[in-house]
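Dear colleagues,

As part of the handover before I leave the project, I'm documenting each prediction I ran so the next person doesn't have to rerun anything. This entry is a single chain, and its sequence is reproduced below.
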Amino acid sequence: MPKNKFEDVVFTIIMALIMVYGMVVYNVALNTGGVTGLTFLLALQELPIMVPIAFILEFFIVGKIARFSADRP
């Protein structure tokens, strides 16, 4: 887990990118009827929109809630 703010930002960016890409690939595959090479290319078009939203939500809202709930006994 990240030990300082810089590591936290880098970790959040990497996790948001991987998670969003995986979910978008899944949704595109559902909409197109299967997984093909085109599915992965179509999913790349969604990343510039979805990754910043996921980063902001995770870094400023969800991360704080997760840390608070993890610290509780």
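The chain has one domain: 5-71. The chain has a mean pLDDT of 91.

All the best with the project,
I.
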